[in-house]
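In the previous chapter we treated chains in isolation. Here, by contrast, the input contains four separate entities that must be folded as one system, with a combined length of 1108 residues.
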Amino acid sequence: MVEAAQTAAFGDTVMFVSKDRNTYIRVLEPGGQFQTHYGVVRYDDVAGQPYGARLQTHLGKDLWLLTPSTDDLVRHLRRESQIIYPKDLGYILIKLGVRPGATVVEAGTGSGALTLALAMTVGETGHVYSYDRRADMQHIAQANLAAAGLAGQVTWIQRDILDGFDAHNADALFLDLPNPWDYLEQARAALRGGGFFGSIVPTINQVEALTEALYRGPWFMVEIEELLLRGYKTIPQRIRPDEQMVGHTGYLLFARALVEPTSPVASREGKENIVPD
Amino acid sequence: MVEAAQTAAFGDTVMFVSKDRNTYIRVLEPGGQFQTHYGVVRYDDVAGQPYGARLQTHLGKDLWLLTPSTDDLVRHLRRESQIIYPKDLGYILIKLGVRPGATVVEAGTGSGALTLALAMTVGETGHVYSYDRRADMQHIAQANLAAAGLAGQVTWIQRDILDGFDAHNADALFLDLPNPWDYLEQARAALRGGGFFGSIVPTINQVEALTEALYRGPWFMVEIEELLLRGYKTIPQRIRPDEQMVGHTGYLLFARALVEPTSPVASREGKENIVPD
Amino acid sequence: MVEAAQTAAFGDTVMFVSKDRNTYIRVLEPGGQFQTHYGVVRYDDVAGQPYGARLQTHLGKDLWLLTPSTDDLVRHLRRESQIIYPKDLGYILIKLGVRPGATVVEAGTGSGALTLALAMTVGETGHVYSYDRRADMQHIAQANLAAAGLAGQVTWIQRDILDGFDAHNADALFLDLPNPWDYLEQARAALRGGGFFGSIVPTINQVEALTEALYRGPWFMVEIEELLLRGYKTIPQRIRPDEQMVGHTGYLLFARALVEPTSPVASREGKENIVPD
Amino acid sequence: MVEAAQTAAFGDTVMFVSKDRNTYIRVLEPGGQFQTHYGVVRYDDVAGQPYGARLQTHLGKDLWLLTPSTDDLVRHLRRESQIIYPKDLGYILIKLGVRPGATVVEAGTGSGALTLALAMTVGETGHVYSYDRRADMQHIAQANLAAAGLAGQVTWIQRDILDGFDAHNADALFLDLPNPWDYLEQARAALRGGGFFGSIVPTINQVEALTEALYRGPWFMVEIEELLLRGYKTIPQRIRPDEQMVGHTGYLLFARALVEPTSPVASREGKENIVPD
């Protein structure tokens, strides 16, 4: 395992951190170097150093050699679009039951933040199928996954998913699209019975439209949730929440695929109406 | 993969869900049965059914046959103590870079919620070492992990961790204890260089004590964070946040293990003082 | 001023507090008594006591004699319906510019929580007009305001406000109704130019409907906001947020009444579309 | 009442608002003018206009003529220091029972945000005593209150409050200082029995220190709370929470002044220990 390595080796994805906690993720290549206003560090000098070590640039500045967390990897993705934040990624994994060996479908690919988290978690025994209409977006995501050493776990498909997915027994499927309600039939066809559906949408108007559509179809256990992450300043004698926080990334919706075509709570009148509460 | 199965088989961990969304997790055993006030379902009739199917009890009540998510598994753990909530579990995995193949240490075991999430994610190529002083607690966690089919990924150790951990090159280590600051030396010894440290504490007094201790030692990139999960009622024409929410589970603290014995921001006076901001 | 009194007098609205912080609000009347499981305190013995004093019941239990805050008064209202919470009341006062001398209209009355906060703030030089269709609800609110000594500041009107308000130059108007969008014309007619409009609704569906209606009419500066109040346990050595908190009371919407009949951002297409951001 | 005026008059504090919702607060003076990049509006043309009217600058740009809310006034204060935010101001008023006629003490003055909210609420029959050591800060606050027409309700005192307050029967007292625990004796001496104490502090270290001090002294009903305000984008077809929000302003602490010198929960051991929960 890369993670278990004690010392940095060529080919490793490493993270350099300055004293003021700026972070830089690079792949160590023979003859290469890391160059910033802190100065230069030659990769030939980095290889063989223990992780956690303090390095010095040619200007005498300190840099620490670390391995990136999944959070670090996601925050450093090259991006052309809004990404799904780490706070949401972890929860999505837990809610969709993603684990080594699972088959997961996502659309659209975007910059590949969720793709990365999925690919890392399903591991070599699982697989991720990532759909996007736009070739340019997928190329960015492909580069991102390759840089993280996870390209092998992903199949990239450029297609309008109105035409359906190739998969038919996926364990989980996630839609990060402006109008997920338009693709629920395709999503159901791609999932195994009982499969996990998830989606993220930024506006309450979309929450309404998707919730309505889920209650009309072969879906059960609809959930709407959102996560707020609060960071703190860590000076020991003056600990306090950050003045500014991310107030909203998106609403998360989840449901399970049923065999029968209708929702157990299809009728909105009468007693069943109160079921989803 | 268990997850990819289309139909329920003996030995599967399944979830029965009633129309009003009560959930029950069981392992299907030949000759067994599921019995509640909804009526009885015989496991011999369940085996072979597709996941996502509607079953009927002998009283004619509907039950849906699903596979549990990680979230479901955690919520149904038999517990003798407060568990780490799914919202925090997912984020911990992301922050500690837990992935298939990783070696992770935790103390204390508690009821095994984090153990379960870790074991599921490290997979068969990784391993979890779980420490607790109390045999009774570990027995509960062991039973919980066995029921989830994850016992093979965990080694259980009953010991006061003041005496140290056995591991020496762990990728990540998590402390869920009242006084994590007392075990930082042992934690450092168990982690590889650059390894990921995490902890959860409920009070601000503990946040202060742990933050101070981390800044004194060979740790870097101290972070304090907390997650708030907001659930919504899902009746399509009356969508609204739940009136009651969990207002606090715990503060999450993270740091990275360094090779040198002191923190880059050890001095609290002068310019370095403002670094952690 | 009642508030400035040093000692309790007959006619005062007082608050008794037990050691475990149970609170009881009563009006001191000659010959009366306060009776709970803590024992009996005779009002004749309370009159003349300084506020902040410790009393003893006939069972020897301690009770503290305090004056209620606005928060205390609201929390102790007799209620038949959901009230607007103190966290929202204070903000509404600030957003509607409510001050001594102001004329404020509200509908519906409900149990009178907002009525109380408004009546207390406009004082003897201002006035509150409170509308409700239901006589039974208004009787509860009237009793609540009378108990707080604020009945003189309020005029009660039982009417369907589809028929309009009597007021024509109100400084502020607040709607706490299921369908506030149906009464915007009446609301505009009751307000002075530039007058402050506010409303509280629990669901996102209502937020959408009201926002749309406000953008169609003579309103400007539409705002949608919500407040989350987090309480903490106060044991000095174990300070922590409460495990349970109120996750939602309602969305607050605000706007200002214009003279011209249309909103400055009536058009949704083109450049103006992005104005409300 | 100024608020009830239908048309703008010289001497009025008015608010000009542009189509893109920039806001400007000015006092109308004969011969004066409002000049921005939107163009010029002469006050002689504004006087006599109805509030809520649309004005036009000499460049033909629209401006709306409104009256400022308390929220608007606070947001436009000239400031040299962090102010207490409107979300907190409203709640402080409710928790301290501030109403027309009340006598309230505050220290330090800062830029006068709380001074303004207090002065507006106590009205002409109440009074605010505002203490600050720094003359320069008080001069800013004085100018701010004068601009809002509230100078008459406030007495300004430049003093180190370690030397005590002049007041002895204040209804409420608020400390906005780095070390409020150092002034609790002085605060108690300034308050009437049962009087309301409040304070705001940004760090958890200060929360701990102040809570400890309150439990040692003649205080009861200690509360620690914080308010989170979430704003929404209001485009009707794309309503969503703002991406960025203020994550922290300060922790609010409240207590009541007792006659006896000790707290009812002075002992931290034994049964009383759990009382404040």
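Helices of chain A lie at 43-46, 70-75, 86-95, 113-122, 135-147, 184-190, 204-216. Residues 51 and 111 of chain A are 29 Å apart (CA to CA). Compare these points with the single-chain example from earlier in the chapter.
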